[in-house]
Amino acid sequence: MSDISAKLKALKVNDLKQILQKASVSVPAKTNKADLIARILASPTALDAYNAQYPSETANDDLLAPPEEVDWNVEDVPPAQTKEPEPPASPPKPAEPPAPASRQNPVEKEEPSTSSTAPEDPELEKRKKRAERFGIALVEPKQPLQKKTSRNKSDPKTTLNEDSEKLKTRAERFGIVGANADVNKRKRTEEAVDPEEQEKRRKRAERFGIKT
């Protein structure tokens, strides 16, 4: 009621009189605004006339407000879920290189054969080459050198005989004996010739460039 009373106070006196006239309520000739408001509030017919003439704004707003447009085709779409980035896959391990052949099949070291022939005596080799050079048959010693040396030390006579024998053999091998014999013969011939004859021979040899 307080709301209607406040709204009635906002109206003019003539508006209040018209409401009472529509409600068939008698209005005195001389009256004031408060008396007119009291008469309207006291008469239900006058209130209906007021509501008919001045409908409430709330009702008008509800009736005049357009309905909200609803899109019935739109479905409720859940918010997109962001996927967490997957961790990068670990790189594949590099293949191990094959083991070298030396590890897989170790080669056995060849042991030096003990059956190999022993090297020849260097002195004997020299003798063979010398004999081949001069076309002489090689006479190999019958006893080892060590035994021969010990024997020579114990018997000096035998050593002298063997040394003289070696010198003789070597002289015969290289033809030294014949040369010495010629030299000795020439010396003996020169001694038998007269000195004057020797001087003549010398001059003759110098003339022809012959050495005497």
TrEMBL record:
<feature type="compositionally biased region" description="Pro residues">
    <location>
        <begin position="87"/>
        <end position="100"/>
    </location>
</feature>
<dbReference type="InterPro" id="IPR052240">
    <property type="entry name" value="SAP_domain_ribonucleoprotein"/>
</dbReference>
<feature type="compositionally biased region" description="Basic and acidic residues">
    <location>
        <begin position="163"/>
        <end position="173"/>
    </location>
</feature>
<protein>
    <submittedName>
        <fullName>Uncharacterized protein</fullName>
    </submittedName>
</protein>
<dbReference type="InterPro" id="IPR036361">
    <property type="entry name" value="SAP_dom_sf"/>
</dbReference>
<dbReference type="GO" id="GO:0005634">
    <property type="term" value="C:nucleus"/>
</dbReference>
<feature type="region of interest" description="Disordered">
    <location>
        <begin position="52"/>
        <end position="212"/>
    </location>
</feature>
<keyword id="KW-0597">Phosphoprotein</keyword>
<dbReference type="GO" id="GO:0016973">
    <property type="term" value="P:poly(A)+ mRNA export from nucleus"/>
</dbReference>
